[in-house]
Backbone:
């Protein structure tokens, strides 16, 4: 009776004699090898959110552009403030948006509203509720009041000519108020990166196809909608290249087409070494293949290269691996190519609420989330096809290439998805 062969428990260990590229090495090559791709454009401020600034942006006016009152109260010449203060009251009111009042004499005060320009001579404003009115022509207040209280000085926030944003800054919603207040009407920005997204595989169907046509052995393409949503959220223009069967000439034709209309291409599937996996072989033979086997889990079949000078990121076909590799490899590359510069992810040291024995050889990323006790849990399965783990998780636990044993309470690196704007 022949002995039954068992599946080795190290079936995912690195093959002997095969040199695998460490994650950090692949990232360093991307960082040093990629450059800014899009052209510049002049964008109106009100439509500039999510664009990346291509030239330093400076304030055209100061903010505030005149000294004004921060409260409703009484403006006064506060050269001689004391514990007991009495000031003559002028029968006028300084309102916001008017310049009818010029100079306030020494020892006089005037009623002033929030945002009103400070008449000359006023250097302090006292709150209305702290004042006692005497015979309608004098005010009295008691207590220490510092010179300069309750006023906003011209340029105290931003001065004319001051740098607002460096080149490479991606404009946020909250940046618009500052730009408008500083008199900026247009900003120099990079045009959005054009990212093509292509899925490959004989077993893949477009998700728009009726569910009744999903035959046995076929799968809906969830990678393309996932990746399209990601890169769109990252401020890129998405070019949907559909699904292509595992046919060498057809895929080659699709790559040639993509290189004419895209700045960069994201593919999923076909990056491994199977007979029907053409992408890596094709790029190696007819393009430029810089990385193929990268020591990362999930996502070992991952290729990085050029096709007709178009950067191409060949992601794994498994949805979880495609998602994780997009965050780890494509996100910082996308920022650099789009003009924002390379960005390292923020890592937080947290206590583990799990145990794990890890083999050496690959950097691993586990789907994870912080629990109510502030510790980090990992998803129940590390399988790349367990898509529900993406919805369950709020970030990734990053484990180094070295072998290690993690016990509950040990500190681990946690990278929140918010680091990637998702």
Residues:
């Amino acid at each position: 009776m022949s002995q039954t062969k068992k599946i080795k428990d190290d079936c995912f260990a690195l093959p002997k004699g095969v040199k695998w590229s460490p994650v950090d090495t692949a990232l360093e090559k991307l960082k040093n090898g990629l450059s800014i791709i899009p052209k510049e454009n002049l964008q109106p401020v009100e439509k500039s959110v999510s664009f990346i600034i291509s030239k330093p942006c400076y304030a055209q006016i100061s903010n505030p552009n005149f000294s004004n009152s921060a409260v409703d109260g009484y403006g006064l010449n506060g050269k001689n403030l004391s514990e007991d203060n009495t000031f003559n009251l002028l029968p006028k009111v300084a309102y916001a948006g008017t310049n009818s009042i010029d100079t306030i004499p020494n020892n006089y005060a005037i009623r002033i509203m929030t945002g009103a320009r400070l008449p000359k001579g006023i250097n302090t404003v006292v709150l209305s509720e702290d004042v006692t009115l005497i015979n309608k022509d004098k005010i009295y207040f008691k207590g220490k009041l510092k010179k300069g209280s309750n006023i906003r000085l011209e340029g105290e926030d931003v001065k004319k000519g001051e740098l607002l944003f460096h080149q490479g800054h991606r404009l946020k919603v909250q940046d618009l108020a500052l730009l408008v207040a500083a008199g900026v009407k247009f900003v120099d920005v990079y045009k959005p990166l054009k990212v093509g997204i292509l899925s490959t595989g004989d077993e893949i169907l477009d998700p728009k196809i009726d569910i009744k046509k999903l035959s046995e052995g076929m799968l809906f393409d969830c990678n393309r909608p996932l990746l399209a949503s990601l890169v769109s959220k990252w401020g890129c223009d998405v070019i949907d290249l559909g699904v292509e069967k595992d046919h060498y000439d057809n895929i080659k034709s699709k790559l040639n087409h993509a290189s004419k209309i895209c700045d960069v291409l994201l593919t999923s599937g076909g990056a491994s070494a199977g007979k029907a996996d053409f992408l890596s072989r094709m790029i190696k033979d007819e393009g430029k293949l810089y990385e193929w086997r990268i020591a990362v889990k999930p996502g070992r079949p991952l290729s990085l290269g050029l096709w007709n000078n178009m950067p191409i990121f060949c992601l794994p076909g498994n949805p979880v691996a495609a998602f994780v590799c997009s965050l780890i490899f494509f996100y910082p590359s996308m920022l650099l190519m789009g003009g924002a510069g390379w960005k390292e992810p923020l890592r937080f040291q947290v206590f583990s609420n799990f145990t794990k024995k890890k083999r050496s050889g690959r950097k691993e990323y586990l789907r994870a989330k912080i629990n109510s006790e502030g510790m980090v849990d990992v998803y129940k399965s590390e399988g790349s096809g367990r898509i529900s783990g993406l919805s369950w998780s709020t970030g990734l636990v990053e484990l180094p290439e070295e072998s290690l044993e993690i016990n509950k309470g040990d500190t681990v690196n946690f990278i929140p998805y918010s680091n990637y704007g998702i």
About this structure: The CA atoms of residues 18 and 293 lie 9 Å apart. The mean pLDDT is 89. Residues 21-38+192-338 form a domain with the Molybdenum Cofactor Biosythetic Enzyme; Chain A fold (CATH 3.40.980.10).
